[in-house]
Structure prediction request, 154 residues.
Amino acid sequence: MYIQMLFIQYMSEQITRNTVISILISGYQVNDELSALFKVYGISLPQFNVLRILRGQNGTAANLSTIQERMIHKMSNTTRLIDKLIVKGYVNRFVCKKNRRKIELFITDQGLKLLKSLDHTIDDKEKELLKNLNIKEKEELMRILSKIKTKKSQ
Prediction:
């Protein structure tokens, strides 16, 4: 009985470890595929994420903390990321007139054009990445992954 319990515990630990490894491998593969796609357009995946966040603001200013909260890749160098997007002409930064310590960020027309040109390409890439999953499997994957995400906040 004791040996059986040890074996079950061992198998459970192996499944857990293999599950985490599979999640990491899949995540890195998706990251690598998307990063290669964005490289062609001269931006990184985190820069794309910032542009999408700003586009989602629909012309309303965003500040640095708003962007950091919504980033997929939580990173400390968000300011440097935004500086690069400003140099490329995709983002504008203004000092808030009401509070001079606050910085307001907006996506430019050039940034919107870039995202518009990428929208169809991204859709195609996402479909390609998940082509081996049917709709039910995608829904199940989302359900399971959301359980992992919520685990962090408990």
